[in-house]
Amino acid sequence: MRLPAGRRPKVRGRVAALDRKLMQRVAATDSWAFDHLLPGLSRAANHSMLWMAISAGLAVSGDKWARRAALRGLTSIAVASATANIVAKGLTRRGRPQGETPVLRRLIPAPVTTSFPSGHAASAAAFATGVALEMPLLAIPVGALAAAVGASRVVTGVHYPSDVLAGFALGTTAGAVTLRWWPLRPTQPAEAARPRRDAPASRTGQGVVLALNEAAGTTSADLAARLREELPDAKIIDVPPGEDIAPPLRCAAPGARILGVAGGDGTINVAAGIAMESGRPLLIIPAGTFNHFATDLGVHSAEDALTALRAGDAVLVDVGIAGQRHFVNTSSTGVYADLVHAREQLESGLGKWPAVLFALARVLRHSHPTDLVVNGRRRRLWLLFAGNCRYEPPGFAPSYRPDLSDGKLDIRIVDAGPPLARARLLAAVLTGTLGRSRVYKASTVTSIGLASAAGEPLRLSVDGEAIDAGTALLLTKRPDGLLVYRPADA
C-alpha cells in the first residue's frame, strides 16, 4: 500500500534516525572482526572480484551444476549491478554517511558515488541467489558470505544499514528474475521408452569398445586411467585432439558387443550414428562441457554409466534426422547456426565460454534473416529450432526434455516477416515474453521439410556442430531409435 504524501517524510526521517543510531553503535563497537576481517572482505568484493573468483572455482570443478550456478550467479550480478548503479543511485542521490569511523576500518580510496542502494550488497545478494537456485546446498555458505559483505559496508562506514537492506532486496530480486529468461533445469532425468530394454551386461568391459575423445571439455588423464582400471577387458581407443573419432570407432564396431564413447554431445552424436548402423547398444561416459543428452538421460558421471553397464540396464531413445545427419539433441538453422559457426572460429584462441560471448555479440550485430521454404511455404526467419523430443519450458530458452522417446520434433520458429520484427524480437527477449510474441511460433511435429529459397546450401547446427547441408532436407525421426545404457534408479 502506498503511503500518503504527508507521511513519507516522517517515515524517511525515522529510517534516517535509526540508520544514524546503528552507525554510531557499530563505530563504537570494539571488535577484531570489525577492524580487520570485514574491511578486507569489503575490498575483496570491489568490482565483484570475490564473486568472480568463486565462480572460477565452480567453473573448473568439473561439476555441471556448479558451472550452471557460476553462470547464473554472474548473470544475476550483471542485472543487479546495472539496476543499482545506473538506475537506483541516479534516482535517489543519497549522500554517504558522515559519522566517525575508526581508522582501521576506513576504505581508501573512499567511494564517491551516491549511497542508496548499496551496489556491493546488491551484487552479493544477486550472486548468492543465483548460486542457490542451481545448487541449494551452497545457499547457506554463499548466503552467509553475502551477508558478511553487506555488513562490511556498514562497518567501514560507507553505507547506512538501510542502503544495505535495499541492496539485498534488489539483488535477491535480480537473481529471481533470471528465471524468466533462463528457467531451472530439473535434476531428475527424462522419461524414456518403457519397459526398460535388456542390453548386454559387462562387469569388466569384456566385449566393450570405447572411444575416448581427448579434446572433450572434461576429459582427463584421471578419467582415462579410471576407465582402464574399471574396465580392464575393454578395448579403449584414445582419440587425440584434432582427430576424427568416427573412423576408429566404425572400424572396431564389427568386433564389439557394446560401443562406448567418452565425450560431449558432438562426440555422442557421432557414436550414436555408428551404434545404430552396427546394431550395437551405446555406453555414454559424459565428458563434455555441457553434456545435455547425458544429463537428460540421467547419466551424470562415469560411475552412473558403469553401474548401468554392469547391470545391463538400458532404454530405447529417439534420434532425430536432419537430411543425412543424426542428432540426439537439436538441429537448427538461422542465427543459432551462425552463432555456433562464429564460436568455432574463436574457440581455439579464446576457449569455449569467452568464444560464446564474443560470438553472440558478433551475431547480434551482423546477422540477417534467412529465407527458407518450410513445408512448401516461403518464409523469412531469424531462427528455426528443431529439438529431438519436446523441450521445456516453452519460449525462447529450451532447457530440458521430460521424455526422450515421445516420437516428436519440437519446432520453434522466430519469424522475421512482421513489421519491426527485429525490434519486437529484441523487446520480447529482454522482457522474457517471447513465448507470447507474434514473431514466435512453436509446435510439435513428426517431420518438417526445409529448403533454401535462394538455392544455396543450408547452414545447420547439429548438436552444436555447424555444417553446410544440401539445398533441401527433411527433419524427421529415425523409427528404430537408439539403445543406450542408463542406471535403473535414473
Task: Give a written overview of the molecule.
- The protein is an alpha+beta fold and 490 residues long.
- Helix content is 44%, strand content 19%.
- Strands 7, 8, 9, 10, 11, 12, 13, 14, 15, 16 and 17 form an eleven-stranded antiparallel β-sheet that branches.
- The mean pLDDT is 84.
Name some characteristics of this structure.
alpha+beta; eleven-stranded antiparallel sheet; Vanadium-containing Chloroperoxidase, domain 1; Rossmann fold; 490 residues
Which second-level CATH architecture of the largest domain applies? Up-down Bundle
CATH class of the largest domain: Mainly Alpha
What is the helix tally? Answer: 15
**CA(first)-CA(last) distance:** 48 Å
Oligomer: single chain
- In the predicted model, the low-confidence regions spanning at least 5 consecutive residues are none
- Helix content range of the residues, please? 40-55%
CATH homologous superfamily title of the largest domain: Phosphatidic acid phosphatase type 2/haloperoxidase
- Remind me, CATH topology of the largest domain? Vanadium-containing Chloroperoxidase, domain 1
What overall geometry do the principal axes of the alpha carbons give?
Answer: globular
Name the beta content range. Answer: 15-25%
Largest sheet: 11 strands, antiparallel
Q: Structural class of the secondary elements?
A: alpha+beta
Mean pLDDT: 84
Rg over alpha carbons:
27 Å
In total, the number of domains comes to 3
Q: How many strands?
A: 18
